[in-house]
């Protein structure tokens, strides 16, 4: 009998494999590979393609770079290849409009950069990531926001005055004393705004604060999301 943890793992793998099988363009030249535990299976599946010498993969951070290398894929950079044919990535929450919260794994800036450069953006997730309506229902840790380190006190104060109920400078926990440092040498704030009524407005309001590099609200960027279900099925939401 499958345990809860192995059901989740199977769900991630099924979603990732189906997303690659149904969307990988035959003549792809540049492919974005996201970050997180679900994307591990995306990289694995792409690594099984017979023509893997014919395209380059663009990472969204350190872990993603390792996944590309470990699966025998060609590594490129977004500076060399600013036009991406397709990007695959995970998400922390997906709403019914296909808006996302991302950044639980601290990679949101490069994830958004690669997704924004991509002609098609496909998300892979397990059933726990699906919101019944708005963002902020399933993912209760707050919206991840990447900031320049010296701006943290100012931005925290401003986010509180914008109505965030909890605002935390993300800490490394037992793995690191002090704040998490991103792949871009920045800090991360998690700001809880509850249920997000208007993700585009919230993103714009936060982005205007001096010191904010990027928010983990991915508004109308995803073309499709594949959810691996507890039953073993995969559900696809598309625009
Ligand atoms: O946004 C991310 C990292 O910044 C990840 O894509 C997101 O956290 C989902 O990760 P996982 O597939 O491990 O649940």
UniProtKB/TrEMBL annotation:
Subcellular location(s) per record: Cytoplasm
EC number: 5.3.1.6
GO molecular function, one term: ribose-5-phosphate isomerase activity
Claim: Cytoplasm is one of the keywords in the record: yes
Enzyme class: isomerase
Main location: cytoplasm
Catalytic activity: aldehydo-D-ribose 5-phosphate = D-ribulose 5-phosphate
Cytoplasm as UniProt keyword: yes
Pathway: Carbohydrate degradation; pentose phosphate pathway; D-ribose 5-phosphate from D-ribulose 5-phosphate (non-oxidative stage): step 1/1
GO cellular component, one term: cytoplasm
GO biological process: D-ribose metabolic process; pentose-phosphate shunt, non-oxidative branch
Family: Belongs to the ribose 5-phosphate isomerase family.
Name of the protein this chain belongs to: Ribose-5-phosphate isomerase
Organism: Debaryomyces fabryi
